[in-house]
Amino acid sequence: MDGKNDNFFLIRHGETYANRLNYIQGTLNDELTSLTKRGMLEAANYQKIFDNNQIDYVYTSPLKRAVKTSEIICATTNIKLRVDERLAEISYGKWNGADISKLKQQYSMYFDVETNDVRPHSILINQGETFEHARTRIWSFLLDVSHRYPQKSILIITHGWIIKNIISLCLENIDGTAFKNPNNLSISKIQLNPALKQQRICYYNRPFIGTMVL
C-alpha cells in the first residue's frame, strides 16, 4: 500500500461487570455493562496515546461501556468524541445478558470449540442480529470515514466481536469466528485505501504501553 491510506486504531472497551461474570453482553446496556473500577483505571492509561501519536478523530460505539471508555481516554484532549450507531456490538437477541457457561451447556452446538464464540447459525435460537448484517454495517462505517477523512488517523472504541470481524473482513471475508475476541483495552491497527480497494492488518490484540508509537 502507498502512503495515501487511513490508519484505524481499534480499542476494545474496558472491563465490565458482565465481563467478570462471563455474561454475553451484545447490545445489553444496563448496570451489568458498566465499567468496573479496574476497567476505568486501565482506560485512563490510554490518555498517553495522544503524547506520541497523531490522532485526528475519535469514534465510539453508542453503548455505555464504550462511551465511558472513550470519555476517559479523551478526558485530557480537545478532540471531539463522535458516536456512530454502526459501531455497536452485535445483538445476540434473547441471549443478551445471559450466562455463557449455562448457554454452552444447553446449546453447545452453537458455540465454536476453539474460540468459545457464538456461531452464525445461533440466530435460529436467539433471534439476534445476523452476522452478515453486522459485518455490512461495520464495513460501511469504515468506508464512509475513509472517504470523508482521507489520509487521517482514526481512533475507534468499540467491542470484541466488531473488532475481530473488521480484521476478518480485511482478510477477504474469512469467518470472524476464526479469531478469539481481543482482550479488554487491547489495541489493533488496520490501514485502508478505498481508492485502491486495499486494506492491511498491521497488528491485532496488542496490549497498550503508555509511550508506544502506534
Write structural notes for this entry.
The chain has 214 residues and is an alpha/beta fold. It has one domain (6-206): Rossmann fold, CATH 3.40.50. It is 29% helix and 17% strand. The protein has seven helices and six strands. It has helices at 17-21, 37-44, 64-73, 100-106, 123-126, 131-148, 160-170; strands at residues 6-12, 57-60, 81-83, 153-158, 187-193, 198-206. The chain has a six-stranded mixed sheet, with helices on both faces. Helix 2 (37-44) runs parallel beside helix 3 (64-73) and helix 6 (131-148) packs across helix 7. The longest helix is centred in the middle third of the chain and has 18 residues, at 131-148.
Task: Determine Rg (CA atoms, Å).
Answer: 17 Å
Uncertain parts: none
Order of helices and strands: EHHEHEHHHEHEE
Strand tally:
6
Major sheet: size, sense and barrel closure? 6 strands, mixed
Give the name of the CATH architecture.
3-Layer(aba) Sandwich
State mean pLDDT (0 to 100 scale): 93
Helicity range of the residues? 25-40%
Number of helices: 7
CATH class: Alpha Beta
Shape verdict: globular
What oligomerization state is this entry in?
Answer: single chain
CATH topology: Rossmann fold
Overall structural class, as computed from helix and strand content, comes to alpha/beta
**The CATH homology group name:** Phosphoglycerate mutase-like
Strand content: 15-25%
Short structural description:
The protein has seven helices and six strands, in the order E-H-H-E-H-E-H-H-H-E-H-E-E.
How are the SSEs placed, and which strands pair?
Blueprint: E1 6-12, H1 17-21, H2 37-44, E2 57-60, H3 64-73, E3 81-83, H4 100-106, H5 123-126, H6 131-148, E4 153-158, H7 160-170, E5 187-193, E6 198-206
Parallel strand pairs: 1-4, 2-3, 2-4
Antiparallel strand pairs: 1-5, 5-6
